Amino acid sequence: MVQVAGGCVGRCSYCITRLARGRLVSALSEDILDAVRHLVASGVYEIQLTGQDVAAWGLDRGESLPELLSAITDIPGRFAVRPGMMHPASVLGILKPLIDTYASDKIFGFLHIPVQSGSDAVLERMQRGYRAADVVGIVDAFRERYPDMMISSDFIAGFPGETDEEFSQTLALLRRAAFVKVNVTRYSRRPGTPAAALKDLPERIRKDRSRALLAEANRIYDSYNERWMGRETSIVATEKNAPETTVCRNPCYLNVVVREDLPFGFSGRAVITENRRHYVVGELLQDI
Length: 288
What we know:
The protein is an alpha/beta fold. It folds into two domains: 2-226, pyruvate-formate lyase- activating enzyme (Alpha-Beta Horseshoe), CATH 3.80.30; 232-284, CATH 2.40.50.140. Helices cover 34% and strands 22% of the residues. A five-stranded mixed barrel has the order 9-10-11-13-12. It has a three-stranded parallel sheet with strand order 1-4-5. Helix 8 links the parallel strand 7 and strand 8. Helix 8 (164-177) packs parallel to helix 9. The two termini are 37 Å apart. The model has no long low-confidence stretch (mean pLDDT 95).
């Protein structure tokens, strides 16, 4: 992992990060490039760029994330970068050049944009700085260029004052955006934040809404994985979690488990044969 920044530019009403970590401080681009070069020289294939809001990198220095990603992809070697979490409001300001940089085969086709809610009223109370339509615009723009791209998100279930209608709007956005990986958190107040002064919803409601989001997310996972059944894809071995199996990633960051003991960094092709919801199973294709 390479941390590209600390802190953030947001003012979310429920979040303690700004209080704990302060304003955005971007790492120097040359320091980041040196860290990536070191990892590549060490034989690392997957390099994750981390930060509270990776898309905001460079805003405090008059630079931008697309510029950084372009410089990283110019580094010689065999590797792929997975950019970390990006605040939708930050993505909006760099959308077109960001989409362009993803054309490089040194960047995984994976995007993590934490939406938190699909209700404009809730987003306003959260002080997120964007509307649900903005999120749809980001998702559609990326998928128009990269149809198989994996786009993930985060949601908060049961934010204070969230009505049944506002929650239904969140479910609708989840279905519309078809996020392939979803992190769902039941709202929990953080002392010192503006939202801490608001009245919590009953735990039962928060739990029920969390379960509803997860159920819809599981349906989306299955739908996304089914589109890969019978297709060939390139893979790179990145992890080992069980004997005689290897966890691989394809260019879209799809989790492909191959039932063979492959060395780290192995690259080849596989045909996808099974959907296991949170991963797929692939059969290694042998060169003839």
